[in-house]
Here is the input.
Amino acid sequence: MAPPSHCYISNGAPQNGVVVPVETGTLPPQDSHLLDPDEFRRQGHQVIDFIADYYARMGEYPVHPSVNPGFLRRELPADAPSRPERDAFDAALRDVRDLILPGLTHWQSPRHFAHFPASSSTVGALGEALTAGINVVPFTWAASPAATELEMVVVDWLGKALHLPESLMFCGGGGGTLLGTTCEAILCALVAARDRKLADIGSRRIGDLVVYCSDQTHFAFRKAAHIAGIHRDNCREIATCRDDMFALSPAELHAAMQADVDAGLAPLFLCATVGTTQTTAVDPIRELSAVAAAHGAWVHVDAAYAGSALVCPEFRHVIDGVEAVDSFSTNAHKWLLANNDCCALWVMRPSLLAAALRTEQEYILKDAAAEGHDVVDYKDWSVTLTRRFRALKVWLVLRCYGVEGLRAHVRAHMSMAASFESMVRADARFEVTATRQFALVCFRLRSPEKLGGEETANELNRRLLEEVNATGSGPYMSSAMVGGIYMLRCAVGSTLTEERHVREAWKVLQDQAASLLRKMEIDN
Amino acid sequence: MAPPSHCYISNGAPQNGVVVPVETGTLPPQDSHLLDPDEFRRQGHQVIDFIADYYARMGEYPVHPSVNPGFLRRELPADAPSRPERDAFDAALRDVRDLILPGLTHWQSPRHFAHFPASSSTVGALGEALTAGINVVPFTWAASPAATELEMVVVDWLGKALHLPESLMFCGGGGGTLLGTTCEAILCALVAARDRKLADIGSRRIGDLVVYCSDQTHFAFRKAAHIAGIHRDNCREIATCRDDMFALSPAELHAAMQADVDAGLAPLFLCATVGTTQTTAVDPIRELSAVAAAHGAWVHVDAAYAGSALVCPEFRHVIDGVEAVDSFSTNAHKWLLANNDCCALWVMRPSLLAAALRTEQEYILKDAAAEGHDVVDYKDWSVTLTRRFRALKVWLVLRCYGVEGLRAHVRAHMSMAASFESMVRADARFEVTATRQFALVCFRLRSPEKLGGEETANELNRRLLEEVNATGSGPYMSSAMVGGIYMLRCAVGSTLTEERHVREAWKVLQDQAASLLRKMEIDN
Here is the structure.
């Protein structure tokens, strides 16, 4: 790693051993300079070239850096500079290149197969840049009318593109919004559901409310429930099994809800998942919604990852019955080319959301034009008041790639994942551990009988993942632990990933597996 | 407003009366094209020029558009295009210019004096662009080590620049994080406080917890408390008065807490404000903290707006006693040149935050290098798991402007606000309605006796604000209602605002006031 170029001034103290006399610092910029169009142009073109160069060299970086905790903190001064150094922006960009980029995990690398993708596109990235440049705060309709209206248009566009029912869209009496993350989306839906239920059963009975999910549901749900004041004992994580492809069982849900009712508790909320984080399991929405409806519980569908796949009609079946749900969310930043962050939330009854999250104060400017109209003030649809103009990015992505473009994008990854799966299946040393539903392949190395078979399988695969991820030039993957089985996850979804990267990843896996098995046999 | 240029294809349906045959649509882009460096360069340079042109023409836009609800929704097609039109990106940028910009409220206008500023800088905007381009998801240390470490460095830099005590920084055993908004920051602190208190008094007593603020505290606090499950009856809004400059009274707080204790309730949390939204009132932190400590309540300081002023040592006194508080937050996107969004939260005991918000699941990759180290996983410090690399922007702003640059920025606005205040005071028809503490001036037009004096003053000022905001070429301001008095707010803080804009704004106010008074006298 290159030495830091920080020789700027910080309270006159020596930085990294270099004492810099105060007078070499440039004067602080005049205020008028801070948003100067020509300065913006000069620096902006540098930034664009910087990012383009980064994309061009993406394949050369190890996906994950080989660094230890503290590696960067130790390199940087303890204080911000009093005055900027000479050519501070140029120097800072050099530091981003030489100090920061080498310490990042490169989520855009074509060899990033870990977690779920954080899919980027040129249009998504530039949509964010535009939003930052325009820098409006559309917390009410009046605070930036076009931003609110574009968001209303875009959530309907996106909802239709994903084949959601009109009841969840503005055009059908529902509506949507663009938040940051799934946890926020679930929290908002949950608070709306909670308030409705407490209005019904008595506002002092928060301790009696019970929420439901499966043991595969993302922790974001338990976190949201905890934040919303649901008692930790009142979160039912219903066990799933491999025979059911790790889907939540409606019969088990019914039993759990009935037991709670019998105990004097109040079923509040079901978080069903389409495409779980560990294995992309799909909960049966229609049947689960019927059970929840019988107990007066709100149904939210978390399709954080797999929601993007709904852009392809061939996947519509995974949300069969979605007409009955109260809310639905998906992360457009995961697999739909809208850079981080962007979670779309749709609700069937926006008035319940607003009733729970509304704020009113005099300093909120009312617009005379909005009087008498039922305008949407998005501050009443989310945790936050301040918000970003995320709609611009999503609108640009839909405009510039079209629904067909998004389909092609998703299908390309599905096809690569299918290839990877075939390669796993063709090698008898490995097995596919969960039925592939989207572009995630869960698999593991079988442990040979002489090495201890099942008892050592988990340890073997842990070591395999460590070895593979340590190659630097190879793929970067993550793992899941489901039903006691440790498995590797290959999530195809980086925009830059091509068929060859998938083949190369498999080759590295095979080589590391062979080497690991050899080593263990010798050790044995 | 120019007609929309949307003649792209959407399910073959006519758009705006123009039927476009399917074959004229361009083919969806190949996946490899979606993050192509050359394409990014081409589109990126366009976007930079677009934003620079916007800044150059900023003064020409009316700050607030004259539009009616539905104006944009009616102009746009009901569906996203199936395939992109030819030169879709260029066409979309034209639509941003011709359709969207004219419908926005221009927060960067030098004549935007409403709400609080959303201060932009070239470096802040480009920091966001860089973050979007790099597009990493630093939810754990391992998920992008340099991003986590830079955030740890930057919150300490910022805390020191703002003269916060080391007990709130990593270097002093505390620590900070960069979130989106104040409401999130308060919610996180509140959940940490709630869990600590419930561990103490019994986990089933959430209904007994009471939170405290003043009648001037931003609604974000009540919203956060409501989300966290605090009963609406258990939020004490303590009345303030003009004689105390609308500050929260420690004696009143003590009385309220004691009454709750006597009633068997448990004081949980005080949200003190430094720089309230309506009049920038400053709550006395030292005295309030002593009262809260005596009752075991957590103290959070919300300095959303005025926190930025702490970069100037002459304002340090407004947080006297801050060493005793549990948490502190400020919005760097309001007045510190870090574009929307960026709220810095510091806490004295990070372990309490993590205990309340931690998540653990197998798919979260552990890094071998992090084993045995006490690394910060920022997902455990916030509502969300997915998060943006906001530290990059703040680091760039501090590097490129320096602490002195930020001071000059704040002081320039202070000085302009002082000028505005002097002009108000010099005109006997007007009065300053709240002591100016930072760069916000609260004022009103006095109602002449013959028009009804006090009884009509509020109505008169409402009309004045409407008239001023309707001029289009004039300033855009907002209002407050405090102690029954309706006042106008002139918040100086847009980066592009210069002394002349403040003088021009005052001239428009005087002219509109004269005209309004004339009109009312005639009507009388």
User: Anything to note?
Assistant: The radius of gyration of chain B is 26 Å. Chain B has 13 helices and eleven strands. The first helix of chain B runs from residue 37 to 56. The longest strand of chain B covers residues 266-273.
